[in-house]
Amino acid sequence: QLLRDAGFPVPSRLYQFSTGEENIVQLQRLSSAGRRIVVNHLHPVNELPAEKCWVPPGLINYLNNKANLGEIVPAAHVPERRLLTMEQLRHDLDTFTYPLVIKAAVNESSGGGGDVQICRNRADVESLPAEFCTAERLVMEEYFPEFLNLCLNYVLMADGQVVYCGCAEQVSDEHGFYQGNWLDRALKLPELVLKLGNHIADKGVAAGYYGFMGIDVALLPGGQVMAFDLNFRANGSTTALLFSESIVHRTGKSVMRLRSWRSRIGYRHLLKIAYSLLQSGSFLPLWSYDPRADGLRDSEARLGGLLIGFTREEVQDLELEIASRGLE
């Protein structure tokens, strides 16, 4: 109902699930019935057969595997990196210069920095999560202490057309985990950033991919531009960017903060705050979650969307106000 009240058309029939297993069963049922389904991440062949996919799964695996970034991005714009196994990583621990970045080079797409670890010392490398230990290959990459973190969004069409959807500044915590985005019309990108993005998008088209694509780019203080991650799928900022022009046209406000909140006070409390912000014209909800619908009474209610303002300071004040009302 929150989405309807925000002006979104909501389909009369919704396909609902509460667990990953229910989702897979539903996907298989719809696929067998000849229905078209859009999924943002590639599924194993035992869940969705390769012959059912519009884009060959092998191609998506190749494009999203972090080990292959150097084959897609021009060498001048690739961070210093090295491919190695976990055994090699452990053997050479004392030879590294810290901090550094370790990435799991796997075919499965991920998001939010889940397969990336910033290691500030030897102990951080030694305590890498299990998914890194089981990866066939790892990428050890140079760490940028200071940079503007950007995500360029594209749509690559089946006919070969490339559409640039815009750029969002990415917000990450000290561990590199994704915390949302800033969308700001005042942000002016150097020509080199867009030239690099267009080049990578063209290579995706030439390889036979079509769909959404995001390019994570570091703009360094000296003006260097480095592409450090490629995501051939819809990205965290994609939905916000697609709505941003309409939001500016309707409200005149050109600064937006995409983020999420959680609350242990309850879903109704969360909705009260959401509707208050919506009615003030400073918020556009994109999703929410009531754990009680799944019988999870001790879990946190969640809300995600766009805070909207004329300046970053105004939006940051809204964030403080929301925090004071019990949302984290």
* Helix/strand class: alpha+beta
Over all CA atoms, what is the radius of gyration?
A: 21 Å
**Average pLDDT reading:** 92
Termini separation (Å)? 23 Å
Provide a descriptive summary of the structure in words.
The chain has 328 residues and is of the alpha+beta class. Among the domains are: 76-142, Dna Ligase, domain 1 (2-Layer Sandwich), CATH 3.30.1490; 253-324, no CATH class. Helix content is 31%, strand content 27%. It is built from eleven helices and twelve strands. It has helices spanning 2-5, 20-32, 57-64, 69-72, 86-91, 122-126, 130-134, 191-207, 238-251, 267-279, 312-324, and strands spanning 81-84, 100-105, 116-119, 137-142, 148-156, 162-172, 178-184, 211-219, 225-231, 255-263, 283-289, 301-309. The strands form two sheets. An eight-stranded antiparallel beta sheet has the order 9-8-5-6-7-10-12-11, sandwiched between helices. A four-stranded antiparallel beta sheet has the order 1-4-2-3. The longest helix is centred in the middle third of the chain and has 17 residues, at 191-207. It is globular, with a radius of gyration of 21 Å. It starts with a helix and ends with a helix. 25% of the residues are buried. The mean pLDDT is 92.
Question: Helices, strands, pairings?
Answer:
Layout (H helix, E strand, L loop, with lengths): L1 H4 L14 H13 L24 H8 L4 H4 L8 E4 L1 H6 L8 E6 L10 E4 L2 H5 L3 H5 L2 E6 L5 E9 L5 E11 L5 E7 L6 H17 L3 E9 L5 E7 L6 H14 L3 E9 L3 H13 L3 E7 L11 E9 L2 H13 L4
Antiparallel strand pairs: 1-4, 2-3, 2-4, 5-6, 5-8, 6-7, 7-10, 8-9, 10-12, 11-12
